[in-house]
């Protein structure tokens, strides 16, 4: 009888201990979050209450499991004190393991953080965690059976201590930080540093310096105020892979090969299955290669799978922060080996993108280690990408409509631009603390803009949000084609100024080569904009191509007009941008001198590109993506 009461008291006390212990873990986690200054309000909302419920629920479950399992090897002795000690320690071990795992997931899956409390992710996480814990308990049970409870306590105590150490180590240090190398070669040649900040999906008309009075972007505005602001810059493709490659090579997508490649079936006039099979071919000369030849140490911090190293973007890069590679750590491999695609998708719905906070943090760490060398630091920020769609909920992003969601989404996009501006500010303030800041040239640009319901590219069968005029990659209207371009040379080298003539993304590289006074053997499609002190007024035709979602289109924008050509259907769209800046009235059916001249120019260019494509196809070897790379692209919808 006494034994029975004692057991119940011990059980109750251990349960209370478990709840208290988990509450303390929750408090530590909350403090860690506050300390890391995560500003995402959704995380604030979810973290305290949902995670507390999660921890308390876990305490009860883990405690019961530990209790049940601990009874098996100890039945012979019927020693309640020992019994309680065994399940208490079993509980400690497994709860710490779970805590370690959850820290891991939050630390290395920043994009996952707002979602991992959602039911499917949570369920999958719990299944994996429970599996790990089950194994730990069975093992400790087996140890207890074989060597007796006394020694099993010692072993479990050590496991618990190791788990605690892991938790602290994981919080205090970052595994990836240790892998940032210090460049030791004597790269002390004179000349300015170059910092390129590319804000993925940034529309210029959402920046204060481009005339938007309702937005607060003081950091980018300051760069513009101290440097050269190009009022009208056009990207050469409406999505990341081809556009970024054009920026880096001063070539068109048809030339550098980093675009969606498709073939036209002449008999059915249908395109074959759309495939992302292109990448930045090795025979291209990139910004990084040119700077490396000129004595620069090069680093590229890129958070977007479509600019990963396996797509050729690591050419000439000394340190490549590859969201794709950095995140392929042990657990992920273990999980994907166990579960193949299904659980992997649930666990890592979007892990192939990294957020600004992470990218800026790593770039700062690289700077700290390498501020003494002459460097080119290229930082790409991704938070303006489709994450603003999260305001309607992850699933509802496919149900959005212009009438009910436009204002909400425009506001959310604006918030993300303002947030990105703060991240730009954080990066620049880190730069300003380095010795060579006064010899640093900063270039800020984007790879494309973003549709916010301005144009609906496909009226029937509206399935995805890009069918409804959101997102990018589907059209080359100005909201997507136009990008900001700001070059801020080292102090006093050039007077602050604005350049009003139309320029292109491909002009950035030759301009940088000239402004940095370096040499290059490369042939550029773009123009050195700094010629004649930026005064040259030749009209530059801006060609764009390579759409992501629909049959390909080619376009030219020049002299206030834009012609869009659809090769598959032969259809044309012509807009008078001065009278019709929103591109609402298609003038293609009407006779116009401007249209005829643009058509000639566009078709000449298309013929030249086609010729180069055929020539390149012979010399460029076909390279198959590995299964792993295909899976990664498939999970994001880039391959169907
Ligand atoms: Zn992009």
Provide key terms for this protein.
8-stranded mixed sheet, binds zinc ion, 17 helices, alpha/beta, 640 residues, Alkaline Phosphatase, subunit A, 2 domains, 4-stranded antiparallel sheet
Word description of this protein:
- β3 (264-265) and β4 (270-271) form a beta hairpin.
- This protein has an eight-stranded mixed β-sheet, with helices on both faces.
- It folds into two domains: 2-173, no CATH class; 193-256 and 277-455 and 466-635, Alkaline Phosphatase, subunit A, CATH 3.40.720.10.
- The protein is of the alpha/beta class and 640 residues long.
- The chain has helices at residues 2-35, 41-74, 80-108, 119-172, 218-226, 240-249, 253-256, 287-293, 323-326, 330-339, 341-347, 356-370, 402-432, 478-481, 508-515, 593-619, 627-635, and strands at 193-199, 228-234, 264-265, 270-271, 297-302, 319-322, 375-381, 440-445, 451-452, 470-471, 482-488, 497-504, 542-545, 554-558, 561-566, 571-576.
- It is elongated.
- It has 17 helices and 16 strands.
- 46% of the residues lie in helices and 13% in strands.
- The site of zinc ion (ZN) has 6 residues, from loops.
Q: Supply the number of structural domains.
A: 2
Mean pLDDT across all residues, rounded?
Answer: 76
CATH architectural grouping of the largest domain: 3-Layer(aba) Sandwich
The CATH class name of the largest domain reads: Alpha Beta
Structural class: alpha/beta
Largest sheet: 8 strands, mixed
Spatial strand order of the main sheet: 6-5-7-1-8-11-2-12
Shape, please? elongated
How many individual β-strands? 16
Please give the alpha-carbon distance between the first and last residues: 67 Å
| Helix share, percent | 40-55%
Low-confidence segments, given as residue ranges, are 36-47, 106-122, 167-178, 268-276, 326-352
What ions, cofactors and ligands are bound? zinc ion
Fourth-level CATH superfamily of the largest domain: Alkaline Phosphatase, subunit A
Q: In percent terms, what proportion of residues is strand?
A: 5-15%
């Amino acid at each position: 009888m006494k034994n029975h009461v004692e057991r119940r008291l011990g059980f109750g006390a251990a349960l209370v201990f478990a709840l208290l212990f988990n509450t303390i873990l929750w408090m530590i986690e909350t403090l860690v979050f506050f300390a890391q200054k995560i500003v995402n309000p959704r995380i604030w909302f979810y973290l305290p209450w949902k995670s507390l419920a999660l921890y308390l629920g876990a305490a009860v479950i883990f405690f019961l499991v530990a209790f049940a399992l601990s009874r098996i090897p100890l039945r012979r002795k019927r020693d309640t004190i020992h019994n309680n000690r065994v399940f208490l320690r079993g509980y400690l071990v497994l709860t710490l393991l779970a805590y370690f795992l959850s820290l891991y997931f939050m630390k290395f899956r920043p994009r996952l953080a707002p979602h991992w409390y959602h039911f499917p992710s949570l369920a999958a996480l719990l299944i994996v965690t429970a599996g790990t814990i089950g194994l730990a308990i069975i093992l400790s049970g087996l140890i207890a059976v074989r060597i007796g409870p006394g020694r099993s306590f010692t072993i479990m105590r050590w496991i618990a201590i190791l788990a605690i150490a892991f938790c602290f180590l994981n919080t205090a240090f970052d595994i990836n930080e240790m892998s940032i190398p210090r460049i030791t070669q004597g790269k002390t040649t004179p000349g300015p540093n170059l910092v390129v900040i590319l804000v993925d999906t940034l529309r210029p008309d959402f920046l204060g310096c481009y005339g938007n009075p309702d937005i607060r972007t003081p950091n980018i505005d300051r760069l513009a105020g101290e440097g050269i602001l190009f009022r009208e810059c056009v990207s050469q493709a409406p999505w990341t892979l081809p556009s970024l490659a054009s920026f880096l090579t001063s070539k068109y997508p048809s030339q550098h090969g980093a675009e969606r490649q498709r073939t036209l079936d002449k008999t059915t006039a249908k395109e074959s299955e759309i495939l992302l099979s292109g990448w930045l071919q090795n025979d291209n000369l990139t910004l990084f290669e040119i700077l490396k030849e000129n004595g620069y140490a090069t680093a590229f911090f890129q958070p977007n799978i479509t600019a990963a190293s396996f797509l050729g973007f690591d050419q000439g890069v000394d340190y490549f922060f590859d969201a794709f590679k950095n995140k392929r750590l042990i657990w992920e491999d273990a999980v994907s080996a166990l579960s193949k695609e299904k659980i992997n998708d649930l666990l890592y719905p979007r892990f192939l993108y990294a957020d600004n906070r992470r990218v800026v943090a790593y770039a700062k760490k690289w700077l700290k280690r390498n501020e003494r060398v002459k460097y080119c630091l290229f930082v790409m920020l991704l938070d303006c990408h489709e994450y603003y769609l999260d305001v309607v909920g992850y699933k509802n992003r496919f149900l959005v409509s212009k009438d009910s969601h436009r204002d909400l989404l425009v506001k959310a996009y604006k918030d993300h631009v303002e947030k990105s501006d703060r991240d730009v500010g954080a990066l620049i303030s880190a730069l300003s603390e380095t010795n060579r800041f006064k010899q640093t040239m900063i270039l800020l640009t984007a790879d494309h803009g973003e549709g916010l319901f301005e144009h609906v590219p496909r009226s029937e069968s509206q399935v995805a949000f890009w069918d409804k005029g959101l997102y990018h990659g589907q059209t080359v209207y100005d909201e997507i084609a136009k990008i900001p371009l700001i070059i801020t040379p080292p102090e006093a080298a050039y007077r602050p100024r604005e350049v009003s003539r139309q320029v292109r993304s491909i002009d950035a590289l030759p301009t940088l080569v000239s402004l940095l006074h370096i040499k290059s053997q490369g042939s550029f499609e773009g123009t050195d904009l700094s010629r004649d002190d930026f005064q040259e007024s030749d009209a530059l035709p801006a060609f764009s191509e390579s759409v992501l979602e629909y049959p390909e289109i080619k376009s030219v924008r020049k002299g206030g007009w834009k012609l869009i050509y659809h090769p598959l259907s032969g259809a044309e769209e012509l807009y008078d941008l001065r009278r019709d800046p929103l591109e609402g009235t298609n003038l293609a059916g009407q006779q116009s001198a401007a249209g005829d001249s643009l058509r000639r120019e566009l078709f000449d260019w298309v013929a030249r590109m086609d010729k180069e494509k055929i020539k390149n196809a012979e010399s460029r070897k076909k390279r198959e993506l590995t299964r792993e790379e295909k899976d990664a692209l498939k999970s994001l919808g880039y391959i169907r």
